[in-house]
């Protein structure tokens, strides 16, 4: 292997694959980034066995070849090099790679690529095209509601659901639920799948750093494929049946208030100061006096009070929430106003963006000790 | 106590005193910020018994008074309030403080100020004036060389030394030494003192956020006082005798190379990638071929090489350093070029900024296993 690649292109490639490098100390080869020099390209790839990312950049290749380099050192090394050409030369006997840029020279011990897991590429016709905006928006507006609790795997993933003329992305941790829908002109023959949260947030990160209008997507066996012009993201799917989330979405509501999203968020942040180290409980009191009263209290610290003006309501209601669950959704909703709807004190409430009816957030209230 | 103060002024005051709040859980009152409303001012203060900071801002006071509020909640509360007036009302029986801004209202349990340590103020004539630039520069260029090892207290402080027509600030951790000198037209009648590193870096932080040309300084008993227009910083001094640092500064040198500071720093960062998780050793090789060769190696990872052009040298030398010790100094030196001087392989080397002869950095080399 002998090739030359620009520092900027190397950085770009690294930035794409870096997060897929395993951070557990199982197989040494998984702590590395695989480099494949072939014809006029360099392909960098990394995987933690759940998520695999590969990114191809242009290179001037004298001799094709491949090697795995320890990510921890390779990444820092490239970031510390000045812009300009970087030359890689592999000694196939010692697996040592000589990397040079100007007068600077590095000799890194490489790892044999034989043990590096290989990706199964799939046929072009398996892919369907989806606007990347649709995916980005869906991930942004739902993924915060995921669980990190590995004991209930399906809650750690996003459900991608393909129904009649609709594509839906769903996240829940059992206490709250976020659903984003999109209308589509086509329906690919995809099964409903649950994709690990890490895969989706990594995909979001990659998409946010580039302008790419369309992204190709395929599902095969236990894997999902996302293909961008120069990057391939492949992830295993989460097995197990997803909860019947439709049943959780309230079909009725007795009170709906319209609130300025940013104002409500700031008020929650202010009022919540006092319970930030505790259970984070805030109480909402909807009054017939055109006021939404927000309060919190902590026996040791004190109590807080604030209010917002709302349209006249026919009845009073007092309901309590984990304020984090409200703030997370308010941060993810992009519209200026939201509708916050309630049935009664202990039943799930819903939040929707005003003007974007394709999103719903359901949140369970907290039962207060009387 | 009953007063009104602007949110911006409260934030300004908090920003000054906040870092002096104790972060150990000893005396509850030390986890608080003391508020004293008196005439047309509000004075905020905090102390961890080593460092005390107080800052005075303007306020509209209806009734004088004082209270201590838990910093953790008070600080967040003020930062989350919108700009504008904030009203404080103390209920002297319950020690509850009602804080209101617009419709937002907080009731915080206060702590009696009786247990809050009182500062001893000193007479105006005890103070001498020093340009704040002199102090800032001295702290920036020396404090990185301090030790954090509490078992050798004097190494955790900066020595302030008043000699004939000179003010010197010195830091050492036993492996390296930084000395910054300033010429002065006056010599206040100050003893040499060792001031805790935390005090000095906190003073630097306060100075860097404001434009204040002169600062008043006094030493009395076991304490040092720094007085700004609206802020007073008081700190205990560190007892114990400071090492005879003059003896460590080499009086001879056999080789001096002139280097571009930034280039040298980047080269060290690049070459050091490979030993970043180990002992951080880099080797310098000064050759008669007008080259400074910089290398590092790690048996597990590989090795690195770089070189810089230097003026012709009469002899060769190989010397090794902890690269962090070189990088710290290069980051603190403000000039474009530096002089790096050596005696021999195992003797201390010195670094000085070219064009600023009032600064010297001494660093011990590392003995390599042969």
What does this protein look like?
Chain A has six helices and 25 strands. Chain A has three domains: 2-115, Roll (DNA Polymerase III, Chain A, domain 2); 124-245, DNA Polymerase III, Chain A, domain 2; 249-363, DNA Polymerase III, Chain A, domain 2 (Roll), CATH 3.10.150.10. The mean pLDDT of chain A is 94. In chain A, the strands form four sheets. The first copy, chain A, has an eight-stranded antiparallel beta sheet with strand order 6-2-3-4-17-16-15-10. The first copy, chain A, has helices spanning 7-17, 71-79, 132-142, 197-208, 261-272, 323-332; strands at 2-6, 32-38, 41-47, 51-58, 60-63, 65-70, 85-91, 96-101, 104-109, 128-131, 157-163, 166-172, 176-183, 193-196, 214-220, 223-227, 231-236, 255-260, 281-286, 291-298, 302-309, 317-322, 337-342, 349-353, 359-363. By secondary structure, the first copy, chain A, is of the alpha+beta class. Helix content of chain A is 18%, strand content 42%. The radius of gyration of chain A is 25 Å and the shape is elongated. Strand 9 of chain A pairs antiparallel with strand 21 (302-309) of chain B, so a sheet runs across the interface.
């Amino acid at each position: 292997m002998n090739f030359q690649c620009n520092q900027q292109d190397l950085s770009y490639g690294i930035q794409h694959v870096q997060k897929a490098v395993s951070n557990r100390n199982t197989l040494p080869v998984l702590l590395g980034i695989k480099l494949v020099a072939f014809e006029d390209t360099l392909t960098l790839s990394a995987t933690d066995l759940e998520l695999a990312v590969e990114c191809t950049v242009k290179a001037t290749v004298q001799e094709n070849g491949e090697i795995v380099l320890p990510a921890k050192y390779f990444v820092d090394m490239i970031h510390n090099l000045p812009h300009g050409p970087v030359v890689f030369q592999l000694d196939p006997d010692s697996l040592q790679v000589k990397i040079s840029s100007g007068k600077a020279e590095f000799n890194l011990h490489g790892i044999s690529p034989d043990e590096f897991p290989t990706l199964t590429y799939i046929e072009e016709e398996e892919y369907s095209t989806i606007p990347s905006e649709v995916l980005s928006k869906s991930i942004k507006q739902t993924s915060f509601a995921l669980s990190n609790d590995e004991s209930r795997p399906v809650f750690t993933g996003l459900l991608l659901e393909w129904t009649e003329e609709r594509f839906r992305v769903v996240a829940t941790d059992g206490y709250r639920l976020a659903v984003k829908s999109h209308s589509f002109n086509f329906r690919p023959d995809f099964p409903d799948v649950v994709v690990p949260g890490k895969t989706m947030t990594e995909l979001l990160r990659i998409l946010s750093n580039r302008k790419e209008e369309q992204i190709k997507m395929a599902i095969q066996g236990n894997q999902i494929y996302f293909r961008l012009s120069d990057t391939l993201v492949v992830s295993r799917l989460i097995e197990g049946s997803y909860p019947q989330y439709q049943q959780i979405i309230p079909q009725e509501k007795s009170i709906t208030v319209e609130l300025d999203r940013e104002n409500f968020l700031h008020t929650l942040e202010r009022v919540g100061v006092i319970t930030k180290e505790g259970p984070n409980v805030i109480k909402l009191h909807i009054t017939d006096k055109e006021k939404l009263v927000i309060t919190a209290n902590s026996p040791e610290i004190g109590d807080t009070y604030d209010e917002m003006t709302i349209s006249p309501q026919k009845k009073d209601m007092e309901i309590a929430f984990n304020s984090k669950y409200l703030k997370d959704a308010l941060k993810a909703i992009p519209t200026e106003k939201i509708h916050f709807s309630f049935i009664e004190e202990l039943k799930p409430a819903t939040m929707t963006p005003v003007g974007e009816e394709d999103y719903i957030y359901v949140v369970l209230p907290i039962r207060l000790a009387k």
